[in-house]
Amino acid sequence: MAKHRLEQPDRGKVAKKAVIAGSITFGSLAAVAGPALAAPVTVPNVGTFELPGVDTKQIPAQFQQQKAPVVKKQDVAKSPDATVEIPNVGKFTLPGISDNQIPQQLRPRGGAPLLAPTQTAGEKAVRAAETKIGAPYSYGASGPNAFDCSGLTSWAFRQAGLTIPRDSYGQLGGGTAVASLANAKPGDILVFNGGGHVGLYIGNGQFIHASTYGVPVKKDVVKNWSLVGIRRY
């Protein structure tokens, strides 16, 4: 009597379809599924894909669809590259990823690049003044190698693209008045000694100034000086 072998379903074809649909394979998906089935499978931190020819019951619980949108093959084909925007880092293009797979908080919002935040003229002036810490004091000098008090502040603002009065009394009379040190922002000009001395506020109760002969440009503490006015340019 001829022996008959039991025909087994072609499991390889089902698994192959799963690989083509979502580039994902699961050991438990090899069972035979009925026709016209398509089960959504969710990959954490990636997205949700439809696997044709697979029953939803075959999908492990940790990969079953929850609230993530289904990313269909035709959607990915229309948008093969997605852009993500990481706060304080920048924008990146992810090839082969649909925009639907990008979390809302990482989707580009447009506008200025995060790597180049907008700075005020005062903030730019502070950055410029900081590069001159250690430069010698010289009366009447306004840089780039030596400074007096108002010479340093006016030079720093020129580097920020803004021209302000050259002398300390002129700087006291210009700009916009700031009510108190508690309201001061980096880049505000602090006026001391009745208007005879100025410095550039850098925050946290400190400022940069060129004080007198023999003392180079340095950071100092505001409370150690007699503050009479604050001007914002």
Automatic annotation (TrEMBL):
Keywords: Hydrolase, Protease, Signal, Thiol protease
InterPro entries: NLP_P60_dom, Papain-like_cys_pep_sf, PG_Endopeptidase_C40
Residues in the signal sequence: 1-38
PROSITE patterns in alphabetical order: NLPC_P60
Boundaries of every NlpC/P60 domain copy: 119-233
Gene Ontology terms, MF aspect: hydrolase activity
Protein family per UniProt: Belongs to the peptidase C40 family.
Protein name per its UniProtKB record: Hydrolase Nlp/P60
